[in-house]
Automatic annotation (TrEMBL):
Organism: Sulfuritortus calidifontis
PANTHER family found in the cross-reference section: EXODEOXYRIBONUCLEASE III
Residues involved in Mg(2+) binding: 7, 34, 145, 147, 245-246
Keywords: Hydrolase, Magnesium, Manganese, Metal-binding
Entry cofactors: Mg(2+); Mn(2+)
Annotated InterPro entries: AP_endonuc_1 (IPR004808), AP_endonuclease_F1_BS (IPR020847), AP_endonuclease_F1_CS (IPR020848), Endo/exonu/phosph_ase_sf (IPR036691), Endo/exonuclease/phosphatase (IPR005135), ExoIII-like (IPR037493)
Protein name: Exodeoxyribonuclease III
Length: 254
DNA sequence: ATGGCGCGCGCAGCGCGA
């Protein structure tokens, strides 16, 4: 089973890339973020024609998450229980015996911003919820745009980014707290090339110069981590015309 | 030097992302 996450930065604009990539990757479950598409406009027919069922929670202009699956989706849940949040950032479904959670963690803008405080509160609520989810679902996968580079090796220029949003100690502590629940960072289960990233700024030729951050992650419960045979970033879509600024991350579960 | 790019919205130029 192949599980993937991809921040598409507008599903409408990226739909041709997504359809090509579904065909190429043969992913079984794909978590999307920043669909920026209201549910009434979700491209259900195109997704179904590609062989996928979809669950989605979108809004106009900002945010929006969707989960595509070749197998039937069940028990769809939107948002973090108990967290009042109008922003569509969380979607959970069950596929077979696996619980899939799709996250678009708040960006935070900058460490002195109100949005950063919202991000930290949000991450606190997330950890509480995931603890309960782990107790309920031994086969749990949490995929998405975490907007956190967990370690310096996930940053092209750690000195320049030190203490900045996406790399701050508080954000990293929240990420480590998720690992503390027993979740494994799928990417780090394996030896990886140095300077592996999942996001590159559109400006300054950042992708060409590999000035990136690894902020898109696949976290796996112990039972799934044991069965995980690979986890990679697929940079091919980032090389296309009019790409998303994020690349897909994909994990294979045996 | 606070910008560079790309998106949505909506028809000019701004807010936002990371």
């Amino acid at each position: 089973m192949k599980l993937a996450t991809w921040n598409v930065n507008s599903l409408k604009v990226r739909l041709p890339h997504l359809l090509d990539w579904l065909q190429q990757s043969q992913a079984d479950v794909v978590c999307l973020q920043e669909t920026k598409t209201e549910d009434a406009n979700f491209p259900r027919a195109e997704i179904e024609a590609a062989g996928y069922q979809a669950a989605f929670a979108g809004q106009k202009t900002y945010n929006g998450v969707a989960i595509l699956s070749r197998q039937p989706l069940q028990d769809v849940q939107v948002g973090i229980p108990g967290l009042a949040d109008e922003q569509k950032r969380v979607l959970a479904v069950t596929v077979g015996t696996t619980r899939i959670i799709d996250l678009y963690v708040p960006n935070g803008q900058s460490v002195d911003s109100d949005k950063y405080q919202y991000k930290l509160k949000w991450l606190e609520a997330l950890a509480d919820w995931l603890k309960a989810e782990l107790a309920q679902y031994p086969e749990l996968a949490v995929l998405g745009d975490f907007n956190i580079a967990p370690e310096d090796r996930d940053v092209y220029d750690p000195a320049a980014w030190a203490g900045q949003v996406l790399c701050s100690e508080s954000e990293r502590a929240h990420f480590r707290a998720l690992l503390g629940l027993g979740l494994k960072d799928g990417f780090r289960l394996f030896e990886q090339p140095e300077k592996s990233y999942s996001w590159w700024d559109y400006r300054q030729g950042a992708f060409r110069r590999n000035m990136g951050l690894r902020i898109d992650h696949i976290l796996l419960s112990p039972a799934l981590a044991r069965r995980c045979t690979a986890c990679t970033v697929d940079t091919a879509p980032r090389k296309l015309e009019r790409p998303s600024d994020h690349a897909p991350v994909i994990a294979e579960i045996g």
